[in-house]
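User: My collaborator sent over this chain with a note saying "see what the structure looks like." That's all I know about it. Can you take a look?
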Amino acid sequence: MTVVYADLTFLLNAVLNYLVLCCTAGLTGLPVRRLRTLAAASLGGLYAVLAAVPAGAFLAALPGKCAVSLLMVSIALGRERYFLRRYLLFLAASCTLSG
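Assistant: Without extra context I'll predict from the sequence alone. Here is the result:
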């Protein structure tokens, strides 16, 4: 039986998502909108908790990951010009910072 600590999972993922979103905003030259970035990071933390429980296993699949990451980037950085470029930079920064 696997034990998932929801509070630690949420906190760790939210903090790391916040840092990656701030990094993406800085690399694209956008100002960091703190509340929007915090909301997007919180969504990522909630996703991590839901994907870790057996009932949310469908979220751990590739379509679920893509949908949540698209929503996170659109909340934090807005759906303005060059959205796809910002999204791909977010994915690259996530992969780079994950090890």
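A starting point for your reply to your collaborator: The two ends are 27 Å apart (CA to CA).
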